[in-house]
């Protein structure tokens, strides 16, 4: 196994597009690192640079202790799994998994046990004689995974491998991939635009926007302490609600919002960030409050999402589903003072 490192890595494409801008990121040996960001933010480029499928414009890429900038892809000992499985349609599952080893000229006696070990690991043990078209999408994805596993690489690179599966299968495969990661004790670098995937699978998440790394940390930390407005809005479902506030006086009062803001030196225009679950229906005396003009209600089971507005700002609350509330009502909610986020209105950086 191996660690991987990006040191001030920039990738500019010939057209002038900067896909990755001064990236510094360390992936630890055995870690499950997820690179998360919207379409076009440079995620695939980050992977392709490590695989050697793209050259860096500036900076250094390491695998373990070795600088690999000029090491050809086949000598980097990484395996990549893509969204599209690229299986050979006329070959059985066994032959698809064995293909690389056959090309290396290994004997069937050496190949067979490795294929069955990898197939068992991904739950394909009984399907080795099938053709790809006789498999479901999830099973085809497992063949692609087994094909990577038999190579026993130092690093596994995944580029949105689950995005063509349906929601239920995706959920199942998330758990499977975690398990496989544990069993292999391998280093995974996994790219996705799906924040739920990132939250549930990553040991750490690296959030990117426009080629720039925004924040790196364990999912819980990034969720609780987003470094800026972009990360705050991108991570979490429903998205964090934002209300612009004047910070200078430190007390925001309006008919709809009563809250003492944290001291923020140098910040006069702020943006208050509120997670849905930081709101609750029974405001304690002295606790900050807001008044939500209710638009829609979505019952989830134990909880409900109450979607509405505070003044002109859309806000979502997650409260007990037994609270009776309907469209057009005004609901007074308490806000947990420990769970207030405040961002600098100009830079977008978190203040607290
Ligand atoms: N070969 C290329 N030549 C020119 N520009 C490219 C090339 N590959 C990618 N880009 C540009 O670099 C930027 C980052 O692309 P990249 O594929 O890394 O994004 P991504 O985050 O993987 O997006 P997606 O989620 O849509 O897969 C994009 O603006 C893209 O248009
Ligand atoms: Mg991509």
| Percentage of residues assigned to helices | 10-25%
What value does the Rg take, in angstroms?
24 Å
Low-confidence stretches: none
> Which outline best applies?
elongated
SSE string, helices as H and strands as E: EEEHEEEHHHEHEHEEHHEEEEEEEEEE
CATH topology heading of the largest domain: Rossmann fold
Strand content range = 25-35%
Bound molecules: adenosine-5'-triphosphate, magnesium ion
Number of strands: 20
First-residue to last-residue Cα separation: 38 Å
Figure out the total of helices.
Answer: 8
Q: Can you tell me the CATH superfamily of the largest domain?
A: P-loop containing nucleotide triphosphate hydrolases
**Biggest β-sheet, characterized?**
7 strands, antiparallel
User: pLDDT average, as an integer?
Assistant: 92
Identify the CATH architecture of the largest domain: 3-Layer(aba) Sandwich
**Computed structural class:** alpha+beta
In total, the number of domains comes to 2
CATH domain class name of the largest domain? Alpha Beta
Counting copies of identical and different chains, the oligomeric state is: single chain
Chain-wise SSE layout:
Blueprint: E1 4-12, E2 18-27, E3 32-36, H1 43-51, E4 58-63, E5 66-67, E6 78-81, H2 93-103, H3 108-121, H4 137-149, E7 155-159, H5 167-184, E8 187-192, H6 195-201, E9 204-209, E10 212-217, H7 219-224, H8 229-234, E11 241-246, E12 251-253, E13 257-260, E14 269-274, E15 279-280, E16 289-299, E17 303-310, E18 313-320, E19 330-335, E20 341-344
Helix pairs in contact: 2-3, 2-4, 3-4
């Amino acid at each position: 196994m191996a660690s991987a490192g990006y040191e001030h890595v920039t990738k500019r494409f010939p057209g002038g597009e900067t896909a990755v801008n001064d990236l510094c990121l360390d992936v630890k040996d055995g870690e499950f690192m997820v690179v998360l960001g919207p379409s076009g933010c440079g995620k695939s480029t980050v992977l392709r640079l490590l695989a050697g499928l793209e050259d860096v414009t500036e900076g250094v890429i390491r695998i373990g202790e070795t600088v690999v900038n000029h090491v050809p892809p086949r000598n980097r000992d990484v395996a990549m799994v893509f969204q599209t499985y690229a299986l050979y349609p006329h070959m059985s599952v066994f032959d698809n998994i064995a293909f690389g080893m056959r090309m290396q000229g290994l004997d069937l006696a050496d190949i067979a046990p490795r294929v069955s070990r990898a197939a068992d690991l991904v739950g394909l043990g009984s399907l080795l004689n099938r053709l790809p078209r006789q498999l479901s999408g999830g099973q085809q994805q497992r063949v692609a995974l087994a094909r990577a596993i038999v190579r026993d690489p130092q690093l596994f690179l995944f580029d949105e491998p689950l995005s063509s599966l349906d929601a239920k299968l995706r959920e199942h495969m998330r758990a499977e991939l975690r398990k496989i990661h544990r069993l292999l004790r391998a280093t995974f670098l996994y790219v996705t635009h799906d924040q739920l995937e990132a939250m549930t699978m990553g040991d750490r998440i690296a959030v990117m926007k426009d080629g720039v790394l925004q924040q790196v940390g364990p999912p819980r930390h990034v969720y609780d302490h987003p470094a800026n407005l972009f990360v705050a809005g991108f991570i979490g479902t429903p998205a964090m609600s934002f209300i612009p506030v004047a910070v200078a006086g430190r007390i925001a009062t309006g008919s709809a919002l009563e809250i003492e803001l944290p001291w923020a030196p140098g910040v006069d225009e702020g943006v208050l960030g509120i997670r849905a679950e930081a709101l609750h229906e029974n405001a304690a005396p002295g606790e900050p409050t807001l008044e939500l003009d209710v638009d829609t209600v979505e019952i989830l089971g134990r909880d409900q999402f109450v979607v509405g507005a505070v003044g002109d700002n859309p806000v979502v609350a997650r409260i007990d589903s037994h609270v009776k509330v309907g469209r057009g009502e005004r609901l007074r909610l308490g806000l947990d003072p420990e769970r207030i986020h405040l961002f600098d209105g100009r830079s977008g950086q978190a203040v607290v």
